[in-house]
Structure formats: C-alpha cells, structure tokens
Amino acid sequence: MAALAQAFAPYRRYLNSTMLTIGIAVVVALFVSVRYGPFALINSLVLGGMWALIAAGLALMFGVMNIPNFAQGEFFMVGSFTAYFVYSAINNALGKNPPSALAALAPFVGIAAAIGVGAIVGVLVEKLLFAPLRKRTRENWVLNAFLLTAGLAVVMTNGAQIIFGTSFRGITRYWDVDPIQILGVNVSVDRLVSLAIALVTIALFWLFLSRTQTGRAMRAVAQDEVGAQMQGIDLGRIYLLTVALTCALAALAGGTLLFMFPAYPTTGIKALYVSWYVLILAGLGNVGGAIIGGFMVALLQTLTTYFVGEAWQDVVPIVIIVLILLFKPSGLFGSGVKGIWEQ
Amino acid sequence: METTEKNVTVSARVPSLFTWIWNFMGFSWVGVAVFAIFAVLPLIPPFNREDLVRWQIGAALLGAQAIAFDFTAGYIGIVNFGFAAFVGLGGYVSALLAVRFGVSPWIGMFVGAFASGLLGFLTGALTLRLRGIFAAVMTWFVGLALLGLTRNLTDLTRGALGLNVPALLETSSNLPYYYIIFVMMLITLLVLRAIVRSHIGLAFRAIGQNVEAARASGVNPTYYRVLNFTISCAFAGWLGSFYAHFYGILTPDVMATGKTVEVLADAYIGGRMSLWGGAVAAYPFVFFLEWLRTSLSQFAGLNLVIYGLSLILVMIYYPGGLAEAYHALERRLRKDKQ
Fold it and tell me: What phi and psi, each to the nearest 5 degrees, are found at residue B7?
C-alpha cells in the first residue's frame, strides 16, 4: 500500500480541482455519446470549439487590458455579416455551376474576410474608444471600460439594424456535399470543418502566446504592466494587438458559424452571454481555462437540450454556474489571486 | 404669559424641524425648482398634448428607475446588470395577481415590490460575496435566467404572446398616470436620499470606495451590500408594476438586457452618486429620443444609437455626468460671489 502511494506520489500534483473537473466533464461527455449517440458529442464539440475561441479572446482582453468586454457579441455579428456578403458575392460571381475547387474555397475566403474586417474593427475600437478612455480615466477603469463597451454594443447592434435592416441573412450550408458518416451518424461537412477551424485556431493561438516574442510580451503585460514597460515593451502596441486579436477571434467564430447563426443585428447576443458564462466559469482573464470552459459549457447546453428541452438552454447552465461559483468564487480554474478588477 | 411662551416655542420648533429636514436631506432651491417644473410641466400648453404627456410618463418612469439603479451602482459600486429583470418581476407578479386572483393593482404593486426585493435579497446574499465585476456579471446571469423562465413558463406568463394587464385607473386620460408616477419618482428619490445621507449611506460610500478599508473600520461589506441591493430591487419591482398597469401589456422583453442598458445610460448621463441626476437627465433625454423616433421613423433604432453614443461620450469625456457639471457650475458661482 505504501509502495503504491509512493509510486503515485509524482502524479499527486495533477490531482487538483482543475483535473478533477476536466475528468468529470470527459466522463459526462462519454456517457452522453454512449446514451444519445455520437451526434450529441459532435454537436458539443462544434459549438464548444467556437465558444472557446470567443471566450479566449474575451479572457485575453480582460487579462491584458482589464476590459470586461460587453461588445464581444457585436464583433461576432461583424464576422457573420462580412462572411455572408463576401461569400454570397463570390457565389453569385461563380454562377450556377461553379468549378468544384473554387466552390470549396469560397467559404474560406468569406471566413478570412471576416477575420480581416474583425481585426480592422478592433483597431478602430482601440484607437477611437479605448485609447482616449485610457488617457482620461484615473479611477474606476474596469467599470468605465465595461460601460463603454456596453454603449458600443448598443451602437453596433442598432447601427447594423439601420444599415442592414432586420432581415435574416443566412445560408443553410457552406459546402454543398453529402454529410459524412461517423460512427453511424451523418455529420455535415460544415460542422466538421468548423470544428477543424476551431482546433487549428486554438493551436495557433496557443503557439502564438507561448512561443513567440509578441505573445510572451502580451502575457507579460497581463501579469504586470509596469514591469513589462520596464523591459521595453511598447504597451500601446500590445493593447492594439490584443483588441485586434480579440475582435478577429469573435469575427472568425461569427463567420464560421454562419450556417447556424444567420447574420442579423442581434445575432451576437447568444455568443456574448455564452462566452461570459465560460469566462465566469473558468475564472476571469484565464485564457487556457476559457478554452476548456468553452467545451464544458457547450456540453452543458447539449445536455440541457437532451434532458430538459431546447428552450431551457440558458436557464439550466446559469443555475449550474451560479452553484459552482458558490463553492469556488474565483471560477473553476481561478487562482484566487486578487487582480485590480476585483477590488 | 404662559400661553405666549408656549406659542414661541412651538413657532420656534416648527421652522427648526423644517430646517433640520432641509439640511439633513441637503435640499437646494434649484433642485426644488427643477422638480416643481416637472410637476407642472404636463399642464403647460405645448406639453399638455396627450402624446407629450405619455413621453413625460416615460421620462418619469425611466428617471425613477435610474434613481433606484444609481443607489446600487453609484454608492456600493456594483452595476446591477439584471436590473430590468427585477423591474419585470415586480410587473409580472403584480399583473398575475390582478389577472388570476383579481387583486387590486394598488395592493399588487407592493406585493410586486416585495417579490423583487426578496429575489434581490437572495441574489445579493448569494452573489455579493463575490468581488467587483464578478458580482455585476452574476446579477446579469440572474436576470437572463429570469428572462428565460418568463419566456418558458408559458402557462403562467403566456410567454412572448404577452400578458394583458388590467389598468391602474379607469380613465383614458394620461394626466392622472403622470402624477402617480411623478409621486412614485419623488418617493423613490426622497427615501433613497434619506438613506444615503444617514449613517447607512456613509457605510455604503465607504464600501464603494474601498472594501478593505471599510472592513477594517468595522463595516460589514456583505451586510450593507445585500441591504442596498434589496432596497434597490424592491423599488425596481414597485416601478415595474406601474409599468405593467400603465402600458397594459407585458412581454418577457421588459426583462431584456437592452432595458437595463437604457436605465444605466440614463443614470450615468445624469451622474453617478447623485440619485437626482438620472431623474433630471431623463426628461430632456426621453423627449429628444422620442422626437427622433417619431420624426425619423424610417431609421428604426437611431434613438438607441444615440443612447449608446451618449453613454460612450460620457464615459470617455465626462464620467461624472450631469451632476458633476452642476456641482462644478455651483462651485464657480460661489467663487465669483466671494
């Protein structure tokens, strides 16, 4: 027995609440896929990947700049509109019987455009709103920034309504091919590709943050602004990049999920509050936690759909998150270290 | 001889009580004059048209909500992002009592206030132990959950179809309604102002500025936060029941986050930690937006764009809002006199 305990000792450090939660989530996911078929699992993976992207951006922005971004859903909307317009323009140009290679590439062009426009919107928001706010605000930065983004969300939603009207602009699918059979269920190519996009983006994002000079600078700023500045890091540049990256991630999700969420002015509201569930569940400013949390919230939503019904998709996860927070007030993966936002 | 002395003391006591209240509440003649103007506004010719009276009702309702909102956001520094849900809950409770059990709206109003206050107490007790922005987001989640419940419990609330609510008065005129909501706004303002100017308000301000310092000085942050939150939510529910019985129809949309943002924008444009700022800002603000909405109806949503823009501009350039502008002006005038 003692020998067993000793053999296990090096692995003791993995036996913490983080690993426990992930373990429970994996077990639940397996149970669901056995009980309800793999479709439930694939659905939560597809949605989870995208929630993870949006929430990772939100967490990054909060960690680096201490801005609780309330306009994330509107950046999602920018992505869906851009992808819709670019994609349908290409489709019209290609005509009735497009060459298959071009037709397969068109969605990627639309999604790439969504990323680009999202990044541009991010740069504009930083230059026009956050930079002046930073220059002028002495106290209550977090609250003021939060209210600023709330105002921005209202402006963008209603601006889109004035410009584009309230009609739904959606597509049923990006790729006009038959669904692929996986484990006996039909899964549409759109879902698979969007899962692939999410995984690739998460991997790239992770590599960027951990391996590149700029990514490290970003994390340094998140840890200690003054210290980072003393090391010669240009704060303005990092801020600009952070906002651009955050918006681009949300826009990427909006563009990729166009087949699920058609483009209309309030299309981002769901993305907004789901990404906030994720962030609160995972702990504010925790990028890694946000990625895991994205999948967990999606799983929670799928479970709710199967057990209680589609309409309760918002109520049940909130109740569970509130309950979790009662026992772990700084989020599942939160460290309990006090940031300036918590004062 | 004895009677005259008595008279003297009584006559001396009456003004002293008055001045005591006046000083305790920190009234100023300018403030009294502004609210007196609001009181007679619907009687003055260009403003006594029925549609303009309706705008004024909207303004007073928004102003009253902004007062209750600022009570929490300004003084203890927690933005109640689910505020509209508490307003809606009060409205729904009062409306359902009237529809299902025939309870008079005048009684239902206070039951609605009680229900919102109770939910506020529970929410506060559960979430206000959390810090800063966590608490704000949690109140938002509670609001979203309440919105989801209202949408889904269609047997009870009829969901998105909307609930027809009996009116408060048997009159087609808007003027009596204006005076009801005006008095409700005044009560909200006076009660909350009395609280913030008492020793309880001192504790609120201490918590709002620095929780740790407040705790070190023997102020229990959780107790005062929950107290503050409960009072604010109870007023929200009370005002919500007026909304229900005035407009006559309730849909779950009254609880939507957009409604909270409207109140929030008005409260911050009026000025945080002033209470009156939101009420004073509401009148010109609602008038301008309603005018914009009716005259430029082809641009649906333009009024909300202005809402958002003004919130953004206030945050960047003048975070103190209207109240700070007024205090700055007052200081300058006083300096000129000296």
Answer: -60, -40
Is A321 part of the contact surface with chain B (CB cutoff 8 Å)?
yes
* CB contact (8 A) between residue A152 and residue B308: yes
Instruction: Name the nearest CA neighbour of A302 among A42, A14, A74.
Output: A42
Res A90: pLDDT: 85
Contact yes or no for B88/B150 (Cβ under 8 A):
yes
* Residue-range definition of the domain harbouring residue B39: 30-337
CATH number of the domain at A304, please: 1.10.3470
Q: Could you tell me the CATH number of the domain that includes residue B286?
A: 1.10.3470
Q: Is residue B17 part of a domain?
A: no
Q: What is the mean pLDDT of residues B205-225?
A: 83
3-state helix, strand, coil in chain A (%, to 5): 75, 0, 20
- How many CB atoms are closer than 10 A to CB A122? 27
Q: Is the pLDDT of residue A247 over 90?
A: yes
> Residue B211: which pLDDT band, with cuts at 50, 70 and 90?
confident
**How confident is the model at residue B131, as a pLDDT?**
67
**Predicted complex ipTM:** 0.83
List the domain range (segments joined by +) for residue A37: 15-174+215-336
pLDDT digits (tens, 9 = 90+) for B228-240: 999 999 999 999 9
Rg (CA), chain A: 21
A166 lies in some domain: yes
Looking at B111-115, B118-122, B294-298, which range is the least confident one?
A: B294-298
Would you call A284 helix, strand, or coil by DSSP? coil
Rounded Cα gap, residues B103 and B95, in angstroms: 9
Q: Report yes or no on B260 lying in a domain.
A: yes
Q: What is the pTM of this model?
A: 0.85
* Chains A, B: CB pairs < 8 Å: 140
**Residue B233 maps to a domain:** yes
* A326 interfacial to chain B (CB closer than 8 Å): yes
Mean predicted confidence (pLDDT) in B110-123: 91
Residues 44-83 of A with CB under 8 A from B: 68
Does A132 reside within a domain? yes
pLDDT of residue B84: 92
A129/B309 CB distance under 8 A: no
Number of independent structural domains in chain A: 1
Domain assignment present for B212 = yes
What is the token pair recorded at A213?
Answer: 């000079």
Q: Which residues of A touch B122 (CB under 8 A)?
A: none
Residue of B nearest to A154 (CA): B308
Inter-chain touch A311–B301, beta carbons under 8 Å? no
Partner residue opposite A158 with nearest CB, options B131, B141, B301? B301
pLDDT over 50 (residue B2): no
Contacts of A330 in chain B (CB under 8 A): 134
Q: Is residue A186 part of a domain?
A: no
